[in-house]
Amino acid sequence: MTYCRLELGLSKNSLAAYRSDLESIYTALESLSLQLEDIGPDEVGRVLAWLRDERELAPASLSRALVSLRMYAKFLVLEKLLAHDRIQLAQAPTLWNNLPDVLTVDEVNALLTSPPPGPLSIRDRVVLELLYACGARASEVIGIGISDLREQTRYVRLRGKGQKERLVPLGEVARKQLRRYMRDLRPQLNLSGKEEALLLNKKGKPLSRQVVWKIVKEAGALAGIHKRIYTHLLRHSFATHLLEGGADLRSVQELLGHANMTTTERYTHVNAHRLKNIHQEFHPRS
User: Fold this and answer.
1) Catalytic residue, candidates 64, 123, 125, 137
2) Using an 8 Å Cβ cutoff, are 235 and 216 in contact?
3) 157, 232, 266, 274: which one is catalytic?
4) Does residue 226 carry a catalytic annotation?
5) Which position among 157, 217, 258, 266 bears the catalytic label?
C-alpha cells in the first residue's frame, strides 16, 4: 500500500478500495486452499467465482478486484517476492453483462421517506435525498461542504473522480429537507462550531462512506423493498428516471460527471430493456 501511495500516487479512496480487494482475495485463496505463487488464469477464475458467489460482487467490482490482483502481482515480481507472474494472463469479466439495477419511482419515494428512526433521522433523510436528487456517489455526498451549497442551496457543487467539479441542481423536496437539517440538527452536531463538512456524525466529524451505505441499506429494509439496496442504486435510478422523462443523453452525462459518453449510454440500454419488458407484458401480440 505504501508503494501504491508513494510510487503510483493513488488517491485515498483508491487505496482503500485496493486494500479491501486484496483482503477479500486472500480470504478467497484461503477458502480455496490456493497459494498466490501457484495461481494462473484458471485459478484466478476460481477466485473471482468465489468472490461473485460468496461476497455477491457485481461484474464491475470483480473487474476492479482483478486489477488490484494484477497490480499486486507486478509489485511482488518487482520486489522479487514472486518468481513468475501468470496472473496477467487472466481475462477480465465482462463489465456490463448484467444491466444496472434500478428502482421504480414509487420505490425511490418509499426509500427516501424511510430514514432509520432516531435522533439523526433528519440527517439521514438528507443523505438519501442528496444521493438521488444529485445522482451523486457516496464519496461525493460526504465530500459536500457548506461552501458547496450555492444560490440558497439551489445548486450543489460535487467533486467527482479526479477531483473534477460539477454543479448539480437541487429540487425543492431535497432543499426543504436540507434547510430543516441545517436549522434543527446540524448546529447541535457541529460541536467545534468550525466544521466545514455538511454532513456530520454525532461526534461532530464528517460522515464516512460506511455510514452512508448503512443508512441506505436500512432505509431500503424499512421501505420494504425486496431488491439488493446499495448507494449506487440511487445513482442508477436518477439517470434512468431522467432518460425516461425525456432528458437528453448529453445532459445526463454532465449531471453524472461522466468523462466518457459510453459510460452514460448504458442507461439507454436499461431504458430499452424496461420498455421491452412492458411490451412483452401488455402487448397482445408480444
Assistant:
1) 137
2) no
3) 232
4) no
5) 258
pTM of the shown model? 0.68
Residue 232 annotated in active site: yes
Whose cell is 429540487? That residue is 171
What gap in Å lies between CA 15 and CA 27, rounded to an integer? Answer: 18
For the chain, what are the domain ranges? 2-89, 105-281
Clarify whether 55 is annotated catalytic. Answer: no
| Cα dihedral: 240, 242, 247, 250 (round 10) | -60
186: cell is: 446540524
- 235 classed as catalytic: yes
Q: Which CATH class is domain 105-281?
A: mainly alpha
**Taking the domain 2-89, which CATH number applies?**
1.10.150
Radius of gyration of the chain (CA): 21
Q: pLDDT of 197-244, one tens digit each?
A: 999 999 999 999 889 999 999 999 999 999 889 898 999 999 999 988
Is 230 tagged catalytic?
Answer: no
Catalytic status, residue 137: yes
